[in-house]
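so ive been stuck on this for like two days lol. basically i have the seq below and the ligand is S-adenosylmethionine, smiles is in there too. i just want the complex predicted, nothing fancy, no docking runs or whatever. if the output looks off dont worry ill sanity check it later, just need somthing to start from for the group meeting slides
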Amino acid sequence: MHGDIMVISARRLFLDQEFRNRLLTQPQYLDDIEEGFFSSLWLPCGISKMTWSRRLDDVNAAIRTTSQKIGRSPQHCLDIGVSSGVSTQEWLEDLHSNGFLCSVVASDLTFRAYLVRINRQLYVLVDQDAQPLQYEILGITLRAWCRRRYYLFGHFITLWVLRAAFRAYARKMGVAGRIAHWDNFRIFPAGSPVIYPVRLVSHRAEALTLVDDAPLFGDVQSLRGRFDVIRVANVMNRISFSEPELRLMARNLRARLVPAGGLIVQGRTNGRGVNDFSIFELDGAGRAGVVHRVGLGSEIESLILLALDGGIMDTYARN
Ligand SMILES: C[S@@+](CC[C@H](N)C(=O)[O-])C[C@H]1O[C@@H](n2cnc3c(N)ncnc32)[C@H](O)[C@@H]1O
């Protein structure tokens, strides 16, 4: 579904309770709809929220077998950049069903978005900076970014007009300021425009512990030194981030590991849908090594190793 122009609108998916209750009786159908919705969202930083069920099964299995092989039994795990949380929920279930009774915290840049109701026919889903993520006009949903084929159909003109009109409207109505004062899902002050907070999480992930966190932007004190395993799937790449940013992210990941060290699992699903991941182990002295690879391993493996380095352990020394 997510290959098509039409995806479900945030309004229907999150705010139309009757529709949502109906979908909850058909969880598989709801899964597909959510997958299409999240995969259609692109953040202004150039990263999508694309995710899908069972995407990381082989990575999850590798985390288990590697933990067993090196004699580390994870107690607390952190999943970074989880999008809808579906793959985090699957990781948790995989760990529990294989006897690892550990906790998993799901984090993302933010789980919050806001639906701005301009009138009965026009809604705009925006991020925390009031940047559009999706438009709904006359019941038709449009991504806030322009697919190549949109050029063919002239959609880009519609998008351009919508973007310019919304920017002018948001400036006039102080949308960004109203969102900035929003705190912990309290009620927005009455008046125009009506803004609804939306929690960007799958129905399957509602029981997860969710934390707003962006390792690029530094330390979340409550996460420091807490985790034995950190998974960063489909977040760190050379297109969206510069090398200094990737190094900084790696060091901030290390700060989230317990003092005795642990595992960082990082990589991406390549264009053929195959996972290329590396599992890095850090010891208590801060030395890092690669203990396992899935597929070809992470494309930024050496950069991460150097950034984590307090003395590099032999790569594959523990295999
Ligand atoms: C492609 S999705 C990956 C989802 C899931 N991990 C997977 O592999 O299916 C990328 C996610 O990274 C998040 N993200 C983008 N920049 C980030 C940052 N600097 N720190 C943390 N998360 C970030 C996005 O919000 C998005 O949900």
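Residues 1-5 have pLDDT under 50 and may be disordered. Residues 155-173 form the longest helix (19 residues).
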